[in-house]
Amino acid sequence: MTGDLFPSYPEFRELRLEDKSCLDDAFKLYDPQISEYTFTNLFVWRETSHVLISHLENAILVKRWNPASNQFFLLPPIGTNSVVSLVKEMLLMTGERDFPPLYGLDRLQAESLKREGFNIREMRDYWDYLYAVRDLSDLPGSKYYAKRKNIKNCLAAYNPTYKPVTEDIVNQCLQLQTKWCDLRSCDTIPGLEAEHRAIKETFLHFSDWTVFGGAVLVDGAVEAFTLGERLNKDAAVIHFEKANPNIPGVYQVINQWFCTQALQDFQYVNREQDLGVPGLRRAKLSYHPTAFIEKYVATL
To answer: Does 161 fall in a domain?
Structure first.
């Protein structure tokens, strides 16, 4: 199937909307761990990341632009092929000079390529945070005391309600996103502006894709929302979460309620990376992740 849809390596083409069903099927078989590997994540960020796609043997290859390092990198091959055997074949076809870094490798993949002479670097800023859904639902013990207190205060002060995201409140969610961006001056910060476009794109396809979401309403108005989907057989992934910063505790409320209301069929939830942003790292660590999805980059 991939031979008909995607060009053969070393040729690539841009990711298209009609690639969704093929990639969805591949991800179900591959059972990815890294948050980058949903069609949603690849497609809605494609303007910034210039996602390109190809295939070699039975593996799908994804090449993505990294604005931070100003270069393309290859994501791990989607398939059951050995990463070492595929890389060797790719090197025979393209040579070392034009071979991009491989990003998003797990520890075993990285170690196998290190034995082949690759340089390996740990990408801590891009590690995904993995949490037990039960922990984020129950917030048990003293380590979550501050979270429970913030939620209790928010409930008492604002009497919020929960609603699954459906077409009838998508416009309200977009209005909150626009308000959030105005407060953060997204148009002056490339990363936030790119995220703004990605969120709008996700909502554009919301009724057609497997994305699902939850919202917190105060006096009938959406004051927080979150969007996620299935990542693998055990875990969901949270793509976006936004809330009115002028309502204390509402971030904690949407986090807990979405886990309680929408994620009970999952054992874990992947809340993506912190990108090395100090405040974001503190916030993610404060929820006490069960594990990290480690990522490494391999370069020649």
So the answer is: yes
Residue 7 belongs to domain spanning: 2-126
Q: What is the DSSP letter of 36?
A: T
- What DSSP string describes 22-34? HHHHHHHHH---S
CB atoms within 10 A of CB 58: 15
Tell whether 281 is covered by a domain. Answer: no
Residue 79 falls within a domain, yes or no?
yes
Token couple for 158 = 């604002």
Claim to verify: residue 86 and residue 174 sit in the same structural domain = no
**CA atoms of 33 and 27, how far apart (whole Å):** 10
pLDDT tens digits in sequence order for the chain, 300 residues long: 465 789 999 999 999 999 999 999 999 999 999 999 999 999 999 988 899 999 999 899 999 998 878 899 999 999 877 899 999 999 999 888 878 999 999 999 999 999 999 999 999 999 999 999 999 999 999 999 999 999 999 999 999 999 999 999 999 999 999 999 999 999 999 999 999 999 999 999 999 999 999 999 999 999 999 999 999 999 999 999 999 999 999 999 999 999 999 999 999 999 999 999 999 999 999 999 999 999 999 998
Q: How far apart are CA 157 and CA 162, in angstroms?
A: 15
- Shared domain for 27 and 152, answered yes or no, is no
Q: Using the Cα atoms of residue 148, residue 151, residue 274 and residue 212 in order, give the sign of their dihedral.
A: positive
- 152 and 256: one domain? yes
For the CA atoms of 77, 236, 226, 165, the dihedral, rounded to the nearest 10 degrees, stands at 110
Q: Whole-angstrom distance between the N-terminal and C-terminal Cα of the chain? A: 31
Q: Tell me, yes or no, whether 224 and 176 share the same domain.
A: yes
178 burial level (CB within 10 Å; 0-12, 13-18, 19+): middle
